[in-house]
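[Protein data]
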Amino acid sequence: MNLDGCAHLRSFKTRKGTEPFRIVHSYFIIAASQEARKRKANSCYCHMCKQHRPRLHACLHCVFFGCHGARHIHEHARVKQHNLAVDLSYGAVMCFSCGDYVYDRELETIARDQRRKAAKNGQVKELCCPWDPTSAEIELLQRNPKRRKITESSTIGLRGLINLGNTCFMNCIVQALTHTPLLRDYFLADRHNCQMEDNANMCLVCELSRLFQEFYSGVRVPHIPFRLLHLVWTHARHLAGYEQQDAHEFFIAALDVIHRHCKGQNSESETNPHHCNCIIDQIFTGGLQSDVTCQHCRCVSTTIDPFWDISLDLGSDDARNNNNDTVNRGTSSGKLNGCDNHPESTTLTDCLKRFTRAEHLGSSAKIKCNACQINRESTKQLTMKKLPLVACFHLKRFEHSTRYHKKISTYVSFPQYLDMTSFMSSRRNDNGYINGTIAEINSDNNRYALFAVVNHLGTIESGHYTCYIRQHKDQWFKCDDALISKATLQQVLDSEGYLLFYHKQFLEYE
């Protein structure tokens, strides 16, 4: 990726400078003053079909607005040979000669300065990622699933990370985050507005923004993430030191720090008061519904809690207890160097079914019923009230107790594409799951595509983390610290799997 746009945009800036973009962005995107908003309302319509259509583009060469859906801006570009236009919804520059949107650091700086100036004067409220992931931004992604053009020989976004001393747990999570589609788009658009300007060197989000620029700059030599490691140690002190840490624990800690550093610039969500509208919550936060049903009167008490990931047990309680007994007796059966190599296997769907099935709480865990007003035996069931854009599944392979520490190496089969419809709260009744409507079952909104897998190799005492990432729809790569190598989809699906990352399928990119 060139940070200074394409050759056509550079040629345009040489001839006409940046003033055309500055005018379009100021009057028809920011529209900070009341006069500018009136001008925008009166002027923003397609000059061909005379309609106020979504995704209107303004030609940078002349005074012309054309809609993208009916391809009137494309027709204007072809006839007039005006190959550059600005999307008035997002401020992105479209090059029709290249056939894609192009990123330009100078124009983005102009746009950011205009947003900051307008916010400082109280003329706009939000500078950073004001979009709701259910509205216009997602519509853009749905309508343009091939927004990235990557050839088989492309190395954009592929870069190794130097291990700074047992930091493979951090490197694999960084690889997964840098290949998360919406997070990548957010940071490459430089949308982070730092809330720690007086001490920006301590902002983890600023460092991540720099890291994304490094990854997508086209440089191929491994990156040394020493600044990121320092900030992780500073903001998550329980991860400080050169001991091997848990990749899942680092993932949650990283999201938490990013969330805290972004939280000040976003108001709380009106639809979910439990989280804000920062980029982390927009991408990773889902809603988990807990239904507790009284076995006497069938009264249901419901609570909904936000989540960033879902931790899944790997087998039935009976099988797990048998394994525990084997370990406690000190025999070598099924155990080698701290790893349980039991032959049984399971699937991700089986784990999700166990996670969402109704559980009888028993007589020793009675809960006060809101209707009966006394303690009653109950059942509890967890379901998905709201699915996140990116779902992370944590397979609980590590068990710790006062008597033993062990790793569970049960093989878990996970799919390339996952449909979460069966686990939605809307399909629950007192008897478990019910059939959804045809529209619900066919909803693309519940379907996911795999894009990253974190694996742990070795034992609980001595192990190593690696990561598979998808750089292209059918191109997978294995990230082993500084080493990046080509992988096949089958190698990914055959891997042990510790953290599984899926994004909603309508975010599919080519």
